[in-house]
Amino acid sequence: MWKYILKRILFLIPIMLLSSFIVYYLMSLTGDPAQAMLGEDATEEQLEQLREEMGLNDPLIVRYGRYIGNVVFHGDLGTDIWKKSVFDEYMARLPYTLYLACVSMFLTALISVPLGIIAAVRQNKWEDFVLSALAIAGMSIPNFWLGLLLMIKFALQLGWLPTSGAEDGVLSLILPAFCTAVPNAALITRMTRSSMLDCIRADYLRTARAKGVKEGKIVLKHALGNAIIPILTSMSNQFAILIGGSVVVETVFAWPGVGSLIINAVKAKNTNMVTGGIIMTTVFVAVILLLVDLLYAFLDPRIKAQYQGK
Amino acid sequence: MEENKDVLKTDQPDCVLEIKDLSIRYDTDDARVYAVNGIDLKLKKQTTLGLVGETGAGKTTTVLSLLRLVPDPPGVITGGEILVNGNDVMKLSRKELSAMRGKEIAMIFQDPMTSLNPVMTVGDQIAESIMIHENVSKEEAFKMAQKMLETVGISGDRAVEYPHQFSGGMKQRVDIAIALACHPNILIADEPTTALDVTIQAQVLKLMKDLKDQFQTSMIMITHDLGIVARTCDEVAVMYAGRIVEEGTLEEIFKKTMHPYTEGLFNSLPNMKDRSSKLKPIKGLISDPTVDYQYCAFADRCPYASDKCWQEVPEKRYYSETHMVMCSAYDDPQFHIARGHENG
Amino acid sequence: MSKKTNAAAQPGRKTQGQLIWHQFKKNKGAVIGLIAFLAIVGLAIIALFIVDYDTQIAGMLIKDKLQKPSAAHIFGTDHLGRDVFLRVIYGAHYSLLIGFLGTGVSVLFGTLIGAVAGYFGGKLEWFIMRLVDVLMTIPTMLMATCVVAAFGISITNLILAIGISTAPHFARTARASVMTVRGNEYVEAAKAIGTNDFVIMFKHVMPNALSPIIVQATNRVATCIIAAASFSFLGLGVPSPLPEWGAMLSDAKPFMRTQPYLMIFPGLAIMITVLALNLIGDGLRDALDPKLKR
Rounded to an integer, what distance in angstroms lies between the CA atom of residue B307 and that of residue A25? Predict the structure, then answer.
């Protein structure tokens, strides 16, 4: 088992290196950092001097190697155009993104799993019809638009919630968490429903009924026990996407997470920050996905057996 | 053969299971399927009844209805009565039904690969049945489950293992263990060995026979394999297109075959004595289940068919207390089929 | 009675396409989605002809600023006096363009390399799938951000960015699909008579492997439209003053308090388009599914 875990971790390293290289390369195309730092009035000499200092004239691979070396051995992602440590800035904001992602995921799970089960059990009856219709509508709503609408209603018009920032504790969290949760919940409701339906048709449920197991237990213990595995896959994928992709919602609500950090950096042409931010987020997401994958082995005895080499 | 008109099928007191004029239909989006069309069946105490017929004859639907497991929708029971140990199954409350399933009557399904829950240990799955019906603690139930595994020839230590760790034959044994865990007096086996290798088949059949004797269970064995029928059954009912066309004791069916379809089944078996002789399949295709036959469903495949076969549903005739045939050809008392009369 | 048993024997037997359409029609939601979608496309095309660029897009004639919805302007006017309704229907074509082209890019590259990987196996497959793994580790929004940051803000770059970031997903699906079909016997049969590998791949394998891709692609168009709107909203997508729906939402932000109606319509347009696509996607999936599974 541990051999497998180690293998996965080791395998992750070249993938991380390659993906960070791709990001680094793309960001190197964005323009001259020296120019960005010195501004428009800088002379060619000043620019050349700064480029030399920063090592910008070296070949790409060398620059990349240096960059990665710094990251791995010194935890240093360089400095941004305002001379602040990229690493420090990122780490300061990471907790906010995580916090938002967790709360959003929690809301999603809370709403969608029970609704999905109900829709499956009452298949083709009115409950299913209503829930399925709501679900497909919900997953079509752009989350940032929902956020804007809710902001208009609850923050601007009613004044119950703050429009932006994270100062007001839980109240600040409500709108961003809710508007990211809605489309995700819609998706998971559908997933739960179809996963449950697959299980409900399964032969082993027939065996359980033939034993005399009551219908409620059939649904909650036997069917859900099997259905939950693909549902968890979807949720964990969504969690990863939330961390990497809540850029827009964070911007809408000026939520001080890494998403808004990266977007602001892109607009300000703050290359190092963008590079560092994207690479850090990528690594983080990859680690989380790996952890989830490993969690699977504990949930599904068939997978567990595979990795124990039985 | 003389029809015995004086024998009435009276309600015998030692009947554990009785089906009276049962009809079941499936209403699907595409079509209406007439799965079971007015059958009568009796299962006597400590007897094994073989239910024989090709795929689609309605055998599985019939036995599912005994436990009220016919999927509803799209299944609809359109008529008849089902009595299990004297109780009308259709009138039971959910609670009573749950209590009956597994305790009075149990079922083993056709495909052992999919009938076990992949995320529960086999011990837990056996114990679950015990805990529903017996008043014991979780630990005791698990111990009893282990004992049950031993009874079916699997080491009790394996109770903590998962279904995927067992081979097909062993999974079927687990199914048997689950079914017999609470010692039901009626066991339904739906083609229990079809999905298994021939060598394993023999083992499983022997196991079932031993357990049947040990627990004094009555059994309905569904199969399309006459060899299995010969080895395990005391009585036989032959089904075609949702009707029972012939039934009787094992000897009556094998030695005194009367229905053309039954004859066709026997003829379909390769002749071991004359290896060069041609195979004799029943001509034509299986009947269309979407048709509500108001005449004999076998008519278009029957070598003895005449006009009246297309006009009415054949009568049920009794040639002994146990031997029944549904065939209009026997309106003529001189009529006989070729089988059993090859030598004149 | 004979309808069921003799369907296959009838001379006027339906083609695959007809069967799929027949199944699709049964799903009322899917049909509504299709009608709505066609209506949107229709409006978008009409808009290209009737909307006057100077007034409604560039906003050169500023009059009737910030009017509430009325008979003259069904959705009202914005801060430059532009009719919101006209801008919304004009804006449709950006979403549709980016959605379809972006997905097209994705499908093209992704399916191609995925199919090649799945079909040929071995080292080639290993190499391609590792590349896919690498690309997939970078979250799609961030990947697209990278591309936009690197190549600049324009519609073409947006299409490329979205396309590249979602291509790996198609590669995975295509590979899985091809591997399933490859194992089928009719491929063996084609090989046995000496058919060239590429011919096999295009003529036999891909048509059958296409179903999951079609379903996924329909889904993708919807997510691409939302992604395009998101980027435009952030100022990294379709540039002002073009009335892409996301950009319109961004324009409406300063007026949230006073003219909230400006925020409603562009977003609603996104939602309806995406909903229509999702309904179609569901219908397609169910229509193609019985062919695969049952």
Answer: 87
Chain A partners within 8 Å of C130 (Cβ): 15
Cα–Cα distance for residue pair B226/B234, rounded to 1 Å: 13
Counting Cα atoms < 13 Å in the Cβ hemisphere of C62 gives 5
> CA angle, B166 as apex, B160 and B168 as ends, to 5°?
145
From the number of C-beta atoms within 10 Å of its C-beta (0-12, 13-18, 19+), residue C258 rates as exposed
3-state secondary structure of B131: helix
Query: Chain C residue with minimal CA distance to B285?
Result: C5
Structure tokens at B45: 């105490």
ipTM above 0.95 for this complex? no
* C21-37 pLDDT per residue, tens: 887 888 888 899 999 99
- Residue B189's φ and ψ, nearest 5 degrees, are -115, 110
pLDDT of residue A310: 42
- Integer Cα distance of C166 and C152 in angstroms: 19
Residue C52 carries which DSSP code?
-
Asked if B288's CB is within 8 angstroms of C4's CB, the reply is yes
pLDDT for residue B94: 86
Q: How many other C-beta atoms can be found within 10 angstroms of the C-beta atom of residue A38? A: 16
Kind of pairing, strands B75-84 and B87-88?
antiparallel
Residue B291: closest C-alpha in chain C: C1
Calpha distance B203→A69 (Å, rounded): 66
**Which of A15, A139, A245 lies at the smallest CB-CB distance from C140?**
A245
Closest partner residue to A211 among B118, B132, B165, by Cβ? Answer: B132
Listed in sequence order, the DSSP H helices in B29-166 are: 59-66, 94-100, 122-133, 138-151
CB contact under 8 A, C1 and B30: no
Which residues of chain C have a CB within 8 Å of the CB of A15? 130, 133-134, 137
- CA–CA distance, A52 with C79 (Å, rounded to integer): 48
For B115, which of A204, A213, A302 is closest by C-beta distance?
Answer: A204
Residues 6+ apart with CB under 8 A from A71: A77, A279
Give me the residues of A, 64-93, that contact B with CB < 8 A. Answer: none
Q: CA-CA distance, A71 to A275, in Å (whole number)?
A: 12
d(CA B270, CA C155): 74
CB pair distance less than 8 Å for A208 and B117:
yes
* Element at A184 (helix H, strand E): helix A170-200
C75 close to C85: Cβ distance less than 8 angstroms: yes
Residues on chain C touching A244 (C-beta within 8 angstroms): 139-142
Structure tokens at A126: 């009115």
Which tokens go with B33? 């399927």
Angle value at C-alpha C199, between C196 and C203, nearest 5 degrees: 145
Burial of residue C164, with CB atoms counted within 10 A of its CB: 0-12 exposed, 13-18 middle, 19 or more buried = buried
pTM of the predicted protein model: 0.78
Token couple for C275: 């909903």
Q: Using 50, 70 and 90 to split pLDDT, how confident is the model at A188? A: very high
Mean of the per-residue pLDDT values for chain A?
84
Q: Kindly tell me the number of DSSP H helices and DSSP E strands found in chain A.
A: 15, 0
Bridge partners (DSSP) listed for residue B101: B105
Contacts of A213 in chain B (CB under 8 A): 98, 128, 132
Q: Residues for chain B: how many in total? A: 344
- CB A274 to CB C145 under 8 A? yes
**Contact by Cβ (8 Å): B204, B169:** yes
CA atoms of B255 and B224, how far apart (whole Å): 18
| Helix ranges restricted to H, C121-184 | 122-137, 140-151, 155-182
Q: Is the link from the previous residue into C207 a cis peptide, with omega within 30 of 0?
A: no
For residue B20, report the phi and psi dihedrals to the nearest 5 degrees. -120, 115
The token pair at C154 is: 């324009």
Backbone angles phi, psi at B49, to 5 degrees: -105, 125
Contacts of the segment A7-10: beta carbons below 8 A, 24+ positions apart: A8/A290, A8/A293, A8/A294, A9/A290
